[in-house]
Amino acid sequence: MTSVKISFLSLLVDIIGKDQINLSIYGNSTIREILVRLRLLIGKNFEENIFNIKGILNKYIILGLNGKDIRKFDGLDTIIKAGDELSFLPAIAGG
Questions:
Q1: Is 58 exposed, middle or buried (0-12, 13-18, 19+ CB in 10 A)?
Q2: Fewer C-beta within 10 Å: the chain N or C terminus?
Q3: In the chain, what is the straight-line distance between the N-terminal and C-terminal CA atoms, in Å?
Q4: Residue 40: inside a domain, yes or no?
Q5: What is the value of pTM for the model shown?
Q6: Mean pLDDT by 10 residues, the chain (95 residues)
Q7: CA gap 56, 29 in Å, rounded
Q8: What's the domain range around 26?
């Protein structure tokens, strides 16, 4: 087992109620598997704000792995390694 640091940034800190979680994971865990565990751990606030009504990652949430957008890797199927940091950032728009 290893640990991954999960950070919630900006408005998500107030919504989720935490700014950081250290989650123990098994080798070769994917981001998708971590999201399932976070749904169970955090509950309704996490689910309602991170996922859309169809249970798909909300398009207004940027998910970063070690400071880079997960879309630069294998998306939700990206494998997490020891010492990685996963961060959730709400996309902010304005005009």
A1: middle
A2: C
A3: 45
A4: yes
A5: 0.87
A6: 92 90 90 93 89 87 95 94 93 70
A7: 19
A8: 11-90
CATH number for position 75: 3.10.20.30
The 3-state DSSP class for residue 24 equals: strand
Instruction: Give CA–CA dist 50/87, Å, rounded.
Output: 12
- The Cα–Cα gap between 35 and 31 comes to 6
What 3-state DSSP class applies to 76? helix
Structure tokens that stand for 74 in this block: 């294998």
Q: What is the pLDDT of residue 95?
A: 57
CA 90, CA 50: separation in Å to the nearest integer?
Answer: 9
Reported in sequence order, the residue ranges of 1-95 that DSSP labels E, i.e. its strands, are: 2-8, 20-25, 61-65, 68-69, 85-90
